[in-house]
Amino acid sequence: MELFGVPIRGLASQLLIGLVNGSFYAILSLGLAVIFGLLNIINFAHGALYMLGAFVAWMMLKYLGVGYWPALFLAPLVVGVLGILIERLLLRWLYQLDHLYGLLLTFGIALILEGVFRQMFGISGESYEVPDSLKGGVDLGFMFMPLYRGWVVVAALVVCVVTWYVIERTKLGALLRAGTENPKLVQALGVNVPLMVTLTYGFGVALAAFAGVLAAPIFQVNPVMGSNLIIVVFAVVVIGGMGSIFGSIVTGLGLGMIEALTKVYYAEASAVVIFLIMAIVLLVRPAGLFGREK
Q1: pLDDT of 228-245, one tens digit each?
Q2: Taking a C-beta distance cutoff of 8 angstroms, is the pair 32, 252 a contact?
């Protein structure tokens, strides 16, 4: 059976790949949106911290014997602590300056991290085994679904929905947004705004590390895995709307699917379709699909 000249089974498999890629776009763009929306920092180090999450998981397995499931929690924690140090020692001095300074600083951090790991491990990449409990797959009739890829989609959706709910629907999220818009007033009410900002940055980069651990069994763990992805993720954030949590999630998943469909029907355009959509969105709605017009 075919749909527009493409076998259903092949189309469904390609859409699953698109959904997996979209899951990574969604988690990474969500972390960027959290950091920009609440701290007004364009975090160009996000891709390097995604790479670092994958390497931390790999090193835990190789040198400490720590398996995938503990690493899924420990690696984001380690990278989150590094993010807290970066915010406390470096970024805190830039909040009152133009966004360009934060972008340049985080770009420099990304280059340093990538350079250190290139020197230590080269660029050939390291393999990371799929956990035994998620090996194999299920034949759904219209497609064969590898268990691990299904897990990646489910895990990404759960993390994205929980993060959106906490920031948009809870008292903690209200305090975070208020602390960004009027920090002096919120601090006068007894809230430790600097600590809240620091933890927010740590959480944002922990999301990147979580995506890195999810990606480790699918892609080669190598120093350039973040730089290969971050430009696309920034395009996703721009399309969804800078700082829009909901926009990052929906746009990330949607663009992953569009990219997959483009590979099926017009493969030559698959590398640029996201940037073409970004150009159109910026012309029609500069704030992004879900961003707030000023």
Answers
A1: 789 999 999 999 988 888
A2: no
